[in-house]
Design brief:
The complex is a heterodimer.
Chain A: E1 2-13, E2 16-27, E3 31-36, H1 42-50, E4 57-62, E5 65-66, H2 70-73, E6 76-79, H3 91-102, H4 108-115, H5 131-142, E7 149-153, H6 161-176, E8 180-184, H7 188-191, E9 197-202, E10 205-210, H8 212-219, E11 223-229, H9 233-244, E12 250-254, E13 257-262, H10 267-277, E14 280-286, H11 290-298, H12 300-309
Parallel strand pairs in A: 3-8, 3-9, 6-7, 7-8
Antiparallel strand pairs in A: 1-2, 1-4, 4-5, 9-10, 11-13, 11-14, 12-13
Helix pairs in contact in A: 3-4, 4-5, 8-11, 9-10
Chain B: H1 2-17, H2 20-38, H3 51-74, H4 79-84, H5 86-91, H6 97-130, H7 136-167, H8 171-200, H9 217-227, H10 248-272
Helix pairs in contact in B: 1-6, 2-3, 2-6, 3-6, 3-7, 3-8, 3-9, 6-7, 6-10, 7-8, 7-9, 7-10, 9-10
Classes of the chains: A alpha/beta, B mainly alpha.
């Protein structure tokens, strides 16, 4: 059963479209990264899945039921961007309140607070909490009642590197236990190793969705090889020129080694030729990162357009 | 039902934590005892005047205080959650908007009812114990009627505060509108009624006029606590119209109940259609 399935979903607010023809799904045991500029429609998509709003067109199925149905929302954990709590209550009181609302066991409360690293602060009022501590409390709140679908909007904001690594490890464990997870983040290099699939939104439309390998194929962006010469740069350069014939590769020199941009399908041929020549001492392969892919799909025109509209 | 109680319980424990419950109870008790002891000061002596006079004075003060306290307690019920950033989170829980608002109403309503019961209850007991020759039975009945109608009046203004709280998007605006509601019902309404009365020079339908009092819960409340003593001499100003109301005490009680039920239903409806 899918965690959620958006089919041809559109949402309009005051007649201006916020989302347009979105098809997106999430299976159990999968981490989906949802990316896009501010205002691209990420939060609206999440609100539709949470059942806070109804789509203008299309259908939203969540955990085999209707979005917003109490039986469904009981199994969803959500961490909003910039999560806030009642300042006069302690972390333990707040989490107990939310546990009661969710019908989760109160025994979970201290366990979860320990798990997110608030063990020592659970009896302090949240107005004394730092941003990172509020974020951890928000995370504990999202984990109440063992959700089957977990949606986290910028979960690492305010977290230190160790806490961030802990969070991602926790998400991996949850995924392995079958939880479907949606991660919205602007820290692309941070989430790249942890997501199974990525979806990229611009101006309310889904630009691309799939695992990283598929997105790389779709983007057809060059792979960068960095080759350290065994003898001289010139020798190595000659080998590359011969191997790539008239393909017109882009070659630059950096720190005494060559950086070569090559189309993905020509990568192996070039590598084999270079290896056979014996002119190479070291090889590094740089696949386009999530950030590169993101910029490719969003396009720099998007940024210019946004700047112009202000 | 469980989630309504969870919300109510938090509101109740909030009002215990921030001492609201205690403060309101204290104000009520002090007020009641002060009026009971110095009620006869106008006629040149210190001491307990009479039960009807004490209740009438309490009701006259009550119409200023009860609406104000109720509005203050409840004006930020929804808009406060929204500004605090918790409304969105609450709505992602298995909790409908109606359940949230009803939970708030139970919490705030219970806070006000408890404060009224404790504050005026203590005063009633003190009067019964300390004043010689007071007719306990009639005092108990009058006190019970007074407390019950005070609670209903308070609930009415809590519900009116919710109508504002679910509509506006900023707390200061909600506070301003709550004050406007207070101003209208407590000060303006009677003046307008009096003005109409005088300006119409008796041409206004005399049978219709008393019914206008039913449009103000504070007037119903005062009538209820004064008319019960068959002592229409206490009815002053526009309230003297109330002597001509053909509906009796039961009608007044129904009026007070409607005055909290209808605004509450309105607030629920408005909240359901609100965009989050």
């Amino acid at each position: 059963m899918s965690c959620f399935r958006l089919e041809n979903v559109s949402y309009r607010y005051d007649k201006s479209p916020v989302l347009h023809g979105i098809d997106l799904r999430l299976e159990a045991g999968e981490i989906l990264g949802l990316f896009g500029h501010n205002g691209a429609g990420k939060t609206t998509s999440i609100k539709l899945i949470l059942g806070l709003m109804q789509p203008t067109e299309g259908s939203v199925a969540v955990l085999g039921g209707q979005a917003g149905d109490p039986q469904v929302t009981q199994h969803i954990g959500y961490l909003p961007e910039n999560v806030m709590f009642y300042p006069q209550l302690t972390g333990r009181e707040i989490l107990s309140h939310f546990a009661r609302l969710k019908g989760a066991s109160l025994k979970q409360v201290p366990v979860l607070l320990e798990q997110v690293g608030l063990g020592d602060a659970m009896d302090a009022r949240t107005k004394t909490y730092s941003k990172g501590m509020r974020q951890r409390l928000g995370l504990a709140q999202a984990l109440l009642g063992k959700p089957r679908l977990l949606m986290l909007d910028e979960p690492t904001v305010g977290l230190d590197p160790v806490a961030t690594a802990d969070l991602y490890r926790l998400l991996r464990d949850l995924r392995d236990e079958g939880t479907g997870i949606v991660l919205c983040s602007h820290v692309l290099p941070g989430v790249e190793p942890y997501i199974d699939r990525a979806a990229i939104l611009t101006e309310g439309t889904l630009k691309a969705a799939g695992d990283l390998a598929a997105l790389r194929r779709q983007a057809n962006m060059p792979v960068t090889l960095s080759l350290a010469p065994a003898h001289t740069l010139a020798d190595l350069e000659k080998v590359i020129d011969e191997a790539s014939a008239s393909n017109g590769l882009m070659i630059r020199t950096e720190n005494g080694s060559l950086r070569v941009d090559v189309q993905p399908r020509e990568k192996m041929a070039l590598l084999q030729a270079v290896m056979a020549s014996g002119e190479v001492a070291d090889v590094g392969i740089h696949q386009p990162s999530l950030e590169d892919i993101y910029v490719h799909f969003i396009g720099s025109g998007g940024l210019a357009h946004r700047g112009g509209s202000q | 039902m469980m989630s309504i109680w969870t919300i109510a319980r938090k509101e109740l424990s909030d009002s215990l934590r921030n001492r609201w419950l205690m403060a309101i109870s204290l104000v009520f008790a002090t007020l009641a005892l002060g009026i009971a002891w110095f009620g006869a000061a106008a006629s040149g002596q210190v001491g307990y005047a009479s039960t009807p006079a004490t209740i009438a004075s309490l009701a006259s003060l009550g119409i200023f205080l009860i609406p104000l306290i109720a509005l203050l307690l409840a004006y930020d019920a929804i808009v406060g959650e929204e500004e605090g950033g918790t409304l969105l989170l609450l709505m992602t829980y298995p909790l409908s908007r109606s359940q949230l608002l009803l939970g708030k109403f139970f919490g705030h309503g219970l806070t006000l009812a408890l404060a009224t019961l404790i504050g005026f209850g203590v005063a009633g007991v003190a009067i019964a114990l300390l004043v010689k020759d007071v007719a306990i039975a009639s005092l108990a009945v009058a006190m019970f009627r007074f407390i019950a109608s005070t609670v209903l009046l308070g609930w009415g203004f809590i519900a009116l505060a919710y109508v504002v709280s679910v509509r506006v998007s900023e707390k200061p605006i909600a506070a301003g509108m709550a004050l406007a509601i207070w101003f209208f019902f407590v000060l303006i309404f009677d003046l307008m009624l009096l003005g109409t009365l005088v300006a119409s020079e008796g041409k206004f339908n005399a049978e219709l006029l008393p019914w206008l009092l039913m449009f103000n819960p504070t007037d119903i409340y005062r009538l209820l606590n004064i008319v019960a003593f068959d002592d229409t001499a206490q009815l002053s100003g526009v309230l003297s119209l109330g002597a001509d109301l053909p509906i009796g005490a039961a009608g007044l009680w129904i009026g007070l109940v409607l005055w909290f039920a209808l605004p509450l239903a309105g607030a629920l409806l408005l909240f359901r259609n609100r965009r989050i």
